[in-house]
Design a protein that fits this description.
alpha+beta; 5-stranded antiparallel beta sheet; 14 strands; 12% strand
């Protein structure tokens, strides 16, 4: 009983283990502090992001092309520099068993494809030539982010083969689901390995206001992937649809257009020198008339003066627009827009102020490399597939074709498409450099001709034709190429090194 008076020692409490010090993140870009609170990134798939934004991006891109001068300029730059005035030229270089060129067969194929590409033959509407098809395809690719072309094989068309453009709106982004062998993503059906097997195409445009299409009663047609050319450049793996090229620049272009519009209105208002009339007692001013909102106005001719009634006061409103920083601010915004569009600022804005030979040459070379990349894409994804499909059709079903289908592989694998070439900023310097490179064996004639979008065989053929024509008319030319005589300009000299100060502005 007396044990309750004994003092019990307090239990020993082990000291808590020291908590490890929290380490900072290894990458500054992954910080979660207040400076990054508005940096909301997404970790969803490419299709998940596109499904929620693709239609809005496409609609805004189209609106900018219709109404924004810089967006229209960008599309025209793509058509002019990627396709050009001649489009992608073709040449067949098939060889016989003895490795000699099959000149007769090659010429037959080239002429037949050229004949099919004439206006009225190569598309189902009859309103396009092969050159028009190329231009329309690059414009759709740039503006909408993708282009769909159906390969139509019917006997009523030239060579039983034609092309049909399908606008991206017909491939419904809301068509998603599972199939027995894969899945459907935004209207594109894939197998289990992610290869497109079919496209689900609406029979009518979902927003055709002319015929008041009913979105609830959408009817679709399943078209095999072998009959569809889907042009788009994916930026992520497993991306089913393409995004417009202007996506990074949409916000900048829209904001800049609104800013320029506001400055223009303010400048016009400032030039008009308008004002307001006030009274001390608040009596109503009758004026010379009223606006649509029944606000009294007074008409004034330029340079005129008038006397105000007693008790009235005129206060001039004189906005000072545009400000002195307007041009610099517009240039800064346009440089960011041009970078997002992957073109040079001078090309997008047509502003050559302060440009030197060195700077414009450097910018031009980088920009043309981008155009050449798009040319290679168009050749691999449009020109060659169309040519191979056309060749297979004409060999199998065209009775007038002397080359039969068993020779398909021989000619289909021997075609070469070539994009347009580019004239240099300073032709004299560039040509001198080509001559030096040829003299030292660094490049070939084919390399030089390719810079101008031509084939060396085509070049030699044209020179030979010019010589024969001159002989037929009894003329002697003042020059002979390839070292056969004196140059029309005398011996080619190398260009001396130019000091940097020699690069005059503009």
């Amino acid at each position: 009983m007396f044990k309750i008076f004994n003092r019990t020692p307090a239990p020993q409490v082990e000291a808590a283990a020291p908590q490890p010090r929290r380490k900072k993140r290894s990458y500054a870009g992954a910080n979660q502090g207040r400076l990054f609170a508005d940096f909301m990134a997404s970790r969803t798939t490419a299709d998940s992001e596109l499904r929620a934004s693709l239609e809005v991006l496409r609609d805004r891109s189209r609106d900018l092309v219709r109404n924004n001068e810089y967006a229209r300029r960008f599309v025209n730059l793509m058509k002019t520099n990627v396709v050009g005035d001649r489009g992608f030229t073709h040449q067949v270089r098939a060889r016989n068993l003895d490795n000699s060129l099959d000149a007769v067969g090659n010429q037959i194929i080239e002429n037949a494809f050229k004949d099919w590409g004439r206006l009225g033959n190569c598309d189902v509407t009859g309103g396009m030539s092969w050159l028009d098809v190329q231009r329309f395809a690059i414009e759709s690719l740039v503006r909408d982010g993708e282009c769909f072309i159906r390969l139509v094989r019917l006997p009523e068309y030239k060579h039983s083969f034609s092309l049909q453009f399908i606008e991206a709106d017909y491939i419904d982004v809301e068509k998603n689901g599972r199939t027995d062998n894969g899945e459907i993503r935004m209207g594109v059906e894939f197998n289990k390995l992610g290869r497109p097997v079919a496209y689900h195409v609406l029979l009518k445009h979902p927003n055709d206001q002319l015929f008041n299409s009913n979105p609830a009663a959408r009817k679709m047609e399943r078209i095999p992937a072998d009959d569809i050319i889907h042009l788009y450049i994916p930026s992520r793996t497993h991306q089913s649809r393409g995004e417009p090229f202007m996506t990074p620049a949409i916000a900048g272009l829209k904001m800049l257009h609104g800013y320029r519009e506001a400055e223009l209105i303010a400048a016009r208002a400032g030039a008009a020198k308008f004002g307001v009339i006030t009274t001390s007692d608040g009596d109503e001013f009758a004026g010379d008339g009223e606006t649509d909102d029944e606000v009294p106005i007074i008409d004034m001719a330029p340079g005129s003066t008038f006397q105000m009634p007693a008790g009235y006061d005129f206060k001039l409103i004189d906005p000072t627009h545009p400000g002195s920083q307007f041009a610099e601010f517009e240039q800064a915004v346009l440089r960011g827009v041009a970078s997002g569009l992957n073109v040079s600022y001078t090309s997008l804005s047509n502003d050559l102020k302060g440009v030197s030979y060195s700077s414009i040459r450097q910018g031009t070379i980088e920009e043309r490399d981008h155009y050449k990349t798009l040319q290679a894409f168009m050749i691999q994804h449009l020109c060659e597939p169309v040519f191979r499909a056309w060749l297979s059709q004409i060999m199998a079903f065209e009775n007038s074709m002397p080359i039969k289908s068993d020779k398909y592989g021989k000619f289909a694998d021997a075609v070469a498409f070539r994009g347009r070439g580019f004239a240099w900023v300073d032709p004299a310097r560039e040509i001198s450099a080509h001559v030096m490179a040829l003299s030292n064996g660094i490049v070939s004639m084919n390399d030089v001709a390719a810079n101008y979008g031509r084939d060396v065989e085509e070049l030699f053929s044209q020179i030979q034709a010019d010589k024969e024509m001159a002989e037929r008319f009894g003329l002697e030319t003042a020059f002979e190429p390839f070292g056969g005589g004196q140059s029309a300009y005398g011996p080619i000299k190398t260009m001396p090194d130019q000091p940097e100060a020699a690069d005059d502005d503009n």
